[in-house]
Write the structure tokens for this entry.
Amino acid sequence: MAETNTAPARYAVMGNPVAHSKSPVIHKQFAHQFGHHIEYTALWADDDGFADALQQFRADGGKGLNVTVPFKLEAFRLTDNLSERAKLAGAVNTMRFEPDGKIFGDNTDGAGLVHDLTKNIGVNLKEKKILVLGAGGAVRGVLGPLLRQHPAMLMLVNRTVAKAKDLVKIFSAFGKIEALGYDELVGKRFDVVINGTSASLKGEVPPLPLNLFTSEAIAYDMMYGDKPTPFMEWAMLHGAATVADGLGMLVEQAAESYLLWRGVRPETQPVIAALRKNG
Ligand code: ATR
């Protein structure tokens, strides 16, 4: 039954920048599916103002918070309890404020990516050869959930190879994972290539060799925009059978957050379709 006579339960996304976040629109549509009475806003915080803004939001009755760039590491440090996947990711994108005053921290980014790939796009990751580009915070957040799909191999490539090697040390307990430099990719082919670098933000494409894709390969950019990212354009030109941006991942990670807060997982397909249509 719709809850309309009480004050709305308050949620928000906090980041910097945050003005163009699609999260308020996404969560509003989720709440509508269940008749939940919630308010979800985008809150900007100063670079060194996250902890204060967080306390203010809680004092104002906030029940849960999504955290985005650049605060995911600080959010990790400010939680009292962490999910296993947040511990592995080393970062928190979802906080739940518990009735006893404690903060529970989760990371739903990796689950969002895996849901989008497996459920929406229909890729079975088991026994696949996966290439992940980048070794920053965004990549660290998705490695655990990807390895849990039991790929044949997960190759991690970064310009600064030492950063990829550090991640391999952390994640090798969870599956077959190796670090390489871009120049070592020549002659290797992959079924799934995931761009987790920030190159698309600068209009750049990572320095990839030709003949990277197997015949059925998918190229996935964790970034998204109004038009295909430079990586997606490159992949289309160079033989990827399917290309996708990270809009589905965004909606799926939001659905996982909603589940953590409200105990129900919203339907994501209609929300993704509406965002594709209306921007
Ligand atoms: P995020 O938290 O979004 O992952 P980050 O920690 O700054 O951001 O990491 C950015 C990633 O994109 C890094 O892996 C970076 O490679 P380096 O570690 O070698 O710097 C990668 N990156 C950024 N621009 C790139 C480009 N033009 N080509 C390839 N990799 C790029």
